[in-house]
Amino acid sequence: MATPICLVGIGKIAVDQHVPAINGSDDWALAATVSRAGTVDGVPSFTDFDQMLTERPDITVVSLCLPPVPRFDYAQKAIAAGRHVMLEKPPGATLAEVHTLSAMARAAGATLFATWHSRMAPGVAHAKAWLADKTITRAHINWKEDVRRWHPGQDWVFEPGGMGVFDPASNGLSIITEILPMPIHLTAAALEFPSNRDTPIAAQLVFHGNVTADLDWRQDGPQSWDITVQTTAGTLQLHDGGARLVIDGAQVAVGPDREYPALYDRMTQLVKTGASDVDLSPMVHVADALTLGKRITVAPFHF
Ligand code: NAP
Description:
By secondary structure, this protein is an alpha/beta fold. It has two domains: 3-114, Rossmann fold (3-Layer(aba) Sandwich), CATH 3.40.50; 119-256 and 286-298, Dihydrodipicolinate Reductase, domain 2 (2-Layer Sandwich), CATH 3.30.360.10. It has helices at 12-23, 49-55, 68-80, 95-108, 122-131, 147-150, 166-179, 259-273, 281-292; strands at 3-8, 28-34, 45-46, 61-64, 84-87, 112-114, 136-144, 186-194, 202-207, 211-216, 224-231, 234-239, 244-247, 250-252, 294-298. Strands 14-13-12-11-7-10-9-8-15 form a nine-stranded mixed β-sheet. The chain contains nine helices and 15 strands. α3 (68-80) runs parallel beside α4 (95-108) and α7 (166-179) packs across α9 (281-292). It binds NADP nicotinamide-adenine-dinucleotide phosphate. Residues 9-14, 35-38, 65-68, 70, 88-89, 117, 150-151, 154, 156, 167 line the site of NADP nicotinamide-adenine-dinucleotide phosphate (NAP).
């Protein structure tokens, strides 16, 4: 039987990905939404989260599609009310608040799933398996996209806690932390802040072990979501955010791109087995970059 689920924060990602993924699955039934303005046709909608928790005890799972800053309060309330919780990426505004949610979920016997959708891209598991026994000599993340296209008018990305270019770049970091057979840590970073904004629009990162990242949110035209890993046994490339895998110049066949359906499949398994999945390693690198990074002021940015 399908599990009733509530989606909270009916904005871009809820509409683009979560609603289709839930509607396309036999495991889930979209039973309610909570949003101040957004609704989904034919689905009961609430504007007040507490009211939904009280009036819909049949809904056992809540998926939070809000930006990171407001998300903690909702997650805390949901766990306290005995619900299982899915968090969009990045899982919180701070590392400590996600540790708090993890502890709460453990104590309550609830599932907490900090999702990293890019890890579900079809090339990622293949890449991880191929790299498992390799010696890495160099790795590079090239993550360059157009913020106006992917976050149209969303000022929260440039407000404190919005993380700026690290909002999309955490996808690249979620892949590299998944596929490399060794841990990495940041040694230097340069962060480019628009003069009128509180978060970086571009960043260059250097990690121990000859790993680098070039992140930019000002890319017009073709978008770049690429990772290259050189090893003593050949070179692996992931393109299109992990959807396309190339090893030594030859394209490797991977499955269809179904990142969000795969996240909901994983949530089904986690709830069924009473487990949680909270890996903060991508966000650790974001926090380290914001701790260690040299600040460079660049031209003001306007949507
Ligand atoms: P969004 O459309 O700006 O926000 C999602 C919804 O959250 C809004 O529609 C709004 O709904 C609610 N919200 C915003 N600020 C709030 C606040 N202060 N308090 C309560 N509710 C608030 O953002 P999004 O692009 O969907 O991104 C949401 C999350 O998904 C982010 O963490 C992002 O990294 C992740 N994500 C986004 C994309 C993308 O392409 N945009 C892709 C993958 C993942 P109401 O105003 O109706 O309440």
